[in-house]
Design brief:
By secondary structure, the chain is α+β, with helices and mostly antiparallel strands. Helix content is 22%, strand content 37%. It has 2 domains: 101 residues, Alpha-Beta Plaits (2-Layer Sandwich); 112 residues, Alpha-Beta Plaits (2-Layer Sandwich). A hairpin with a 2-residue loop joins β10 and β11.
């Protein structure tokens, strides 16, 4: 892949970001139960909390995402998700029923900000954790590749696709070329997802796109997978 070069013109989109971290401990495998408890509290009529319309799954970038940050449960809201999260805070009772256990929720940290997504004149470094990069079809293609460079190129194309899915979710029409490099392919590992074991990655990547901290990329970001941080 060609090295990342400086870009003269900007193409950007300003979005709202809201992060709330709660003051109790939660294991990563219980994030789906935390998500279900929040959905139960606000009501299933609030679609952005669960991305379903009736029984049908909505194939759109999740604007409300559930995670753990330093072992504390957190909700990361993007754009319109920052408005819908108010449905939770309007409640007078913040108790959550997580796996049959009633938990009293208090806020450890809260943050609201605006972020400009756009092209950077300099390379930006990120780390992504628990990234579901490969579906069943891509998995077969990936393991059939012979060398590390081919595998890196394959994952780079998938990551660019994940970034474009995020851009579509925030109504950002990306008109320039996204440059992205994964310097090293780490050993793949198995991640637990809905009673299944699936291949995932923790890895670093470099790109010419400015992305918000703590958003997710890839599959199942609403359940805490694929969270990125700037390094």
């Amino acid at each position: 892949m060609e090295p990342i070069t400086k870009l003269r013109k900007k193409s950007e989109s300003q979005i709202k970001l809201f992060v709330v971290i709660f003051d109790f401990k939660l294991e990563k495998q219980k994030i789906p139960a935390f998500r279900a408890a929040v959905v139960e509290k606000v009501g299933r009529e609030n679609v952005l909390f669960h991305n379903h319309l009736g029984e049908k799954f909505l194939y759109a970038y999740p604007l409300i995402q559930y995670k753990t940050i330093r072992q504390n449960p957190a909700i990361v809201c993007v754009d319109k998700g920052t408005e819908d999260i108010l449905e939770f805070f309007k409640k007078t009772d913040w108790h959550l029923n997580i796996h049959g256990r009633t938990v009293e929720t208090e806020i450890r940290h809260i943050d609201f900000d605006h972020f400009v997504c756009g092209f950077s004149p300099d390379p930006l470094h990120y780390r992504i954790r628990n990234w579901f990069a490969l579906n069943e079809g891509n998995f077969r293609k990936f393991i059939a590749l012979d060398d590390a460079e081919a595998k890196s190129d394959f994952l780079q194309r998938i990551m660019i696709g994940n970034i474009l899915s995020f851009a579509k979710g925030i109504h950002w029409n990306v008109r320039k070329r996204i440059e992205l490099v994964i310097p090293e392919i780490p050993k793949r590992r198995l991640l637990s997802f809905k009673r299944y074991q699936m291949m995932g990655f923790d890895l670093d990547f470099i790109t010419n796109i400015s992305l918000p901290n703590l958003i997710g990329l890839g599959k199942s970001v609403s359940r805490g997978f694929g969270t990125i941080t700037r390094t």
